[in-house]
Each structure stands twice: as structure tokens, then as C-alpha cells.
Known about the structure:
The protein has 6 helices and 3 strands. The chain has helices at residues 4-14, 16-19, 24-39, 45-52, 56-66, 84-101; strands at 42-44, 71-72, 80-83. Helix 3 packs across helix 6 (84-101). The mean pLDDT is 87.
Amino acid sequence: MMKKSDIFIGTLKKDLALFKNMSDSQLENYIFNFLKTLHGDYDFKTSFCNTTLIHSQYVEEAILNNNIPFENYNDNDKYIVLSTKDFSKIVINSYKRKLRSGKI
């Protein structure tokens, strides 16, 4: 069985030609829909980070700086739950230049 990160990166590499002509909103919508197929509407920060290969510290900084809403699972700060829509904004900020330049 393939890991979600392999599926995510493999699909992005396959679709690199599309990203050069996409607007920011189209790119965000593409990432959102793709992550939604892998994770549903909500998932844990760690699961999202493992799929997208984005460091957890980057996500935590983005949450604080961009006022992205999150929930703590069972009131435990270790387990952060994010909506897929909000996490896709973090992914776009991280991957936008890479996708447009064609280098992943």
C-alpha cells in the first residue's frame, strides 16, 4: 500500500504543467480537493504534515501568524485538529513557488 505522502507528491509532480497557468484561488482549490480525498473535512495536524511533508513547526507558526482556527482533541494541546480548507492555505503558502517553478 502506498503512503499518502507518495501519492501526494507523485500527483503534484504529474500535474506540474497545470500549475504554471493556475491562479492562486485555482491552485488552492486544487490542493483543497486533493487533500479532502485523502483526509476528509478534518484531520490531525500530524497526519496532514505526514502527507504533505511540511514540518510541524511551520504549520504551528502559520496557525499563530494567520489566525487559522484549530481544535484540540480531548483538550490535549498535543493533538491539533484542522479543517482541510484551512490546512490547504498553509500548503499553498509552502508549495506555491515550487509548483509554479516546476521543481518539487
